[in-house]
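Predict the 3D structure for this chain.
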Amino acid sequence: MSEFTDFSDSEEEIQETRNPLRTRIKTLEEEIKSLRQNAVEAEQAKREMAFMKAGIDTGDIAAKYFVKGYDGELTVDAIKQAAAEARLLSPIVPVETLSEQQAWNRTNQVAAGASSANEIPDLQARLDAASSEAEILAILSEVQN
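Done. Predicted structure below.
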């Protein structure tokens, strides 16, 4: 039995020494396969991180389809713009537009405040409160002017 074991060991050694290049090629092929798999995983992680930085919930079903189908640049701005076009995110409002909108709102508030001081109180309430015909005529003359 020990002779058989010695015989098979020596045969394996002879086979390895006969074809060391093939053995090395096999190990290199395995390393290449592993490195390619690592590169694919790293690219997927990089892609997912870019979408997360853009504010897209990668767990959402619609977002999964968007992430899978997106083929543009992997920059935050490009992803946000594409997501806004796909209605996954609200549209991006530039800072200039936002400040301009706030200025218009302030202007409208000032204009609304200025006109409210000159407004005539409810006409029906004033007519109901009038105690004489002269007061009613004065109220109606104010309304006509």
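DSSP finds seven helices and no strands in the chain.
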